[in-house]
From TrEMBL:
A GO biological process held by the record: protein folding
Annotated organism of origin: Mizuhopecten yessoensis
Chain residue ranges for the region called Disordered: 114-138
Known role: Binds specifically to cytosolic chaperonin (c-CPN) and transfers target proteins to it. Binds to nascent polypeptide chain and promotes folding in an environment in which there are many competing pathways for nonnative proteins.
Segments of skewed composition (Basic and acidic residues): 114-127
GO molecular function terms listed in the Swiss-Prot or TrEMBL record: unfolded protein binding
This protein's GO CC annotations: prefoldin complex
CDD domains (alphabetical): Prefoldin_2
Name recorded for this polypeptide: Prefoldin subunit 2
Family assignment from sequence similarity: Belongs to the prefoldin subunit beta family.
Record keywords, A-Z: Chaperone
A Pfam family it matches: Prefoldin_2
């Protein structure tokens, strides 16, 4: 962001790309946590049908440790609940980042190539869009 008044087109585009990268990071982390939650749910459902004093193994800090089902099950349930809260928080951040991106686009009058209306495009030109960002000159 330039200290003096207007930003160059490159700075505006770079700012937009940074926002999009942040949004992608939130989406990736949310997806990873949702997969972990599904794995936890599968293990929890399996362990619920097993006797409490049966041996099971759990990975703790990269080390495989032996425990009993009654020790591991509450920890798994707690972990799953905490992951659920984190997913909710990340989902809210993802939505707010999307709103921030839309405001940024409106503020700087940005259009993604290929989103422009059909009237602007010339019918004899073939449009091949790779999601290129174009800043409109004011």
């Amino acid at each position: 962001m330039a200290a003096k008044g207007k930003q160059s087109a490159e700075q505006i585009v770079a700012g937009f790309q940074e926002l999009r990268q942040q949004q992608r990071a939130f989406a990736t982390k949310t997806s990873e946590l949702e997969m972990d939650m599904k794995e936890h749910e599968l293990v929890i459902e399996t362990l619920k049908e097993v006797e409490d004093d049966r041996k099971c193994f759990r990975m703790v800090g990269g080390v495989l440790v032996e425990r009993t089902v009654k020790d591991v099950l509450p920890a798994l349930i707690s972990n799953r609940e905490q992951m659920g809260k984190i997913v909710e928080t990340l989902t809210e951040k993802l939505e707010s980042k999307g709103t921030e991106i839309n405001k940024y686009r409106e503020q700087h009058n940005l259009k993604i190539k290929g989103e422009e209306s059909k009237e602007i495009e010339k019918p004899d030109q073939e449009v091949k869009s790779g999601g290129v960002l174009v800043a409109k000159e004011s």
